[in-house]
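Sample log: Poly(A)RNA polymerase GLD2 isoform X2.
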Amino acid sequence: MLSNSPNHYDELIYLVYETHRQRKEDYHTKLQIRQQFYDILDDELNVAFDLFVVGSTQTQFSLRSSDMDLCMLVYDHHGHIDQRYRQNKSITIDLLQSIKNIITKRLCSKNEINLLMNAKVPILKIVTEFNYYRIAVDININGDLSIRNTFLLTYYQELDNRVAPLVVAIKSWARKMRIDSPFYGMLSSYSLSLMAIHFLQNIQPPVLPLMHIDDLNDQSVFDQIVNTGRLQEHLCIFIGETRKKFHSYNYSQLGELFFRFIEYYYQRFHYHNQFSIRELFKNQSSSNNIGTFFIMIEDPFHYHNTASSVTISSFNTIMNAFGRTYYSMKSSTFTEQFFDL
């Protein structure tokens, strides 16, 4: 338990959440922007497609300043996800270039557009404005992994109303500590979310259960779910089945959970183990797909390390951030200065 914990720790975490959380009007505006892009592209593209809102915008783990991620699924003439865009990077880039040209022509005065062709997954980055609401939007082609990741995080967010406030507070803290940029060898937003879920599964008693995701790992089953438009229905089924089997007997408040998250990754977690939300612990030496890294956070679908960018220098910076926060909370000197407010 958090010794000498002032009551304002709970209030502080709620303050961070209320400051940063995505408002309903933010979400609805993002959906309108998505619809605007869809209508424009549907008029001019000669392919069958759909646009999915993915990432933190959909999971409710988004900070108000966060980008919106869109996944365009392109279908073949049978109505299945077109495998060519998974196998051939050049035709993906060609399609993104066409999208760039269309949006530039139709919304030229409102957008800044860049095509990142050399990224591992080519992305079209758009800074757009809609009714005086300015936002950055990233579009990928057939990045179905992002849809599955979004499904998974939304599932966990729906199971317990403490999950979203805790994750948003962790992201705000990580931004303030400057440990939230993979470009500089730090942690991605997705990695931080997985760390939070892993912690909530391992705390005693657990707040969240392990998830059996065989259906989502089976490409043909997943494609069928997406093709038939049954993602939301499937999510509701998963949540309903889980609630029949699992009930959390952990009633800790947010301040306590935030402290125990910091304590867990500073003092208790053994970094020779791999973070996994499919199983409680996985030893590094037993994994053939991860390799040797300073922090190993398993993507639950592709099994690669989502923290592969972390170096020895950035690992030390991350651990220093956990240490400073831990000792500040232990000594009751923890304040809003530890968050990006």
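Observation: Residues 283-290 have pLDDT under 50 and may be disordered.
Observation: The first strand starts at residue 48 and ends at 54.
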